[in-house]
């Protein structure tokens, strides 16, 4: 099983969150990129302000590693217009994949039309420019029933608005890794949560983000049917080194 090609190797901390300088943070992002090149990971997942620099760097290295970024991160409560503006800039900067945080708070409040609007418009923007689009639903903030309902809605909206040939490029993704839980509850992908997503996503692929810490975890997720794993400990999933405490 070639786990490396399932991995979106991730660094999303801001300098303020990490206690590093801007320069030190960029060094971290470039180290992540060098590691992704060396181990042939599928993608590096980074903040929007680094997309152009890292895309140019990968081109200079003749690498096939993709560049992904997060949109509306991490709360998901940005307006539709702000999400589209952020996504459009990332596209101009050369991004390959857009990981939007869906407005799960609006979903929980029953504002389905708003959530549908951002899904349709955000997905269309990505697909129009031949990008893969992923929708982070933040499963730690949702009940099992809400995970099932939101995933099923995304699948319904995809069928209503896009063609079957597009489905492989519209993911449902579990987590941001930045949601704060109580009582030690996991804030990333769990086997139980991912199974609910898989059971309700129809023909859409699923990405398990955060919480996958060992090669055995990764193999189990892949066997269950996920198509990508988001991780800040990509080497650990290949059996090299220990996984960090975070994403």
UniProtKB/TrEMBL annotation:
Its EC number is 4.1.2.4. Gene3D superfamilies: Aldolase class I (3.20.20.70). Keywords: Cytoplasm, Schiff base. This is Deoxyribose-phosphate aldolase. It comes from Epilithonimonas arachidiradicis. The gene is deoC.
